[in-house]
């Protein structure tokens, strides 16, 4: 498959993670253009990855066959409308990573039916340890499907969905998911220090424990429940901790949190529909 030029519209946190994954995979940085209004972020991307950087979306988009929309959902209507003329002549493959924003909304804001892939990656993409959920609209050809898949596979495995509505659930589980683990890490760190460990000791113990447990989840044939049971000696220390988590409603809390994230995705979509078109 030839390397098609790629434009990132938005050079923030997630774009940086994806660009890092693509460069680590061996993609030529000269094939990547990034539009980012903040001069500091632009310069950091140029310095760290040697990609082309531009101040305006138009300047980056006109170079590329694939547009990766990596701006916040709230600015997406304006970005699409600004790019509408170029989109209708260039007819790029559009890949949007914005939470909540639907392919129908993007089509409406661009004002023309374009091949659109919605992608929901996560920040471990930077280390090529991410995971991406994807959905393609009816305009996407087989070849473009493969192009989008190859692009996001630089970030880690991909999972394609038939039902676009499930993208909000993917966002709630894996898009936002790294933050849940970081929150757990923060809480374990504070608890370890409260029990007398130094900050440095707690930090290395927490990070390596989460890393090792994640590797076991990924590499073992056993379920999370089975792996948990292997740690939990009857009447032992783990049992004391797990009983405390269960008594505090840990599972219900996680369910409510993921539900809140999914609902927020739908709200982000609805909020943009309230704007004048
Ligand atoms: N962060 C994450 O873990 C994930 C994020 N996403 C999605 O990715 C998208 C970006 O999120 P994230 O990277 O966290 O957000 P950031 O705010 O870090 O990045 C967005 C960037 O886009 C810039 N921007 C704003 N307007 C324009 C424009 N017209 N042209 C070009 N760039 C523009 C912003 O600049 P300025 O700040 O000056 O406005 C900002 O630097 C969101 O839609 C989010 O839902 C998806 C998966 C995971
Ligand atoms: O918090 C957000 O809205 C974005 C989407 C998934 C991760 N970050």
Automatic annotation (TrEMBL):
Keywords: Amino-acid biosynthesis, Cytoplasm, NADP, Oxidoreductase, Proline biosynthesis. The keyword Cell membrane does not apply. One of its GO terms (cellular component) is cytoplasm. Its EC number is 1.5.1.2. It catalyses: L-proline + NAD(+) = (S)-1-pyrroline-5-carboxylate + NADH + 2 H(+); L-proline + NADP(+) = (S)-1-pyrroline-5-carboxylate + NADPH + 2 H(+). Transmembrane segments: none annotated. GO terms for biological process: L-proline biosynthetic process. Catalyzes the reduction of 1-pyrroline-5-carboxylate (PCA) to L-proline. This is Pyrroline-5-carboxylate reductase. It comes from Solilutibacter silvestris. The lineage of its organism: Bacteria, Pseudomonadati, Pseudomonadota, Gammaproteobacteria, Lysobacterales.
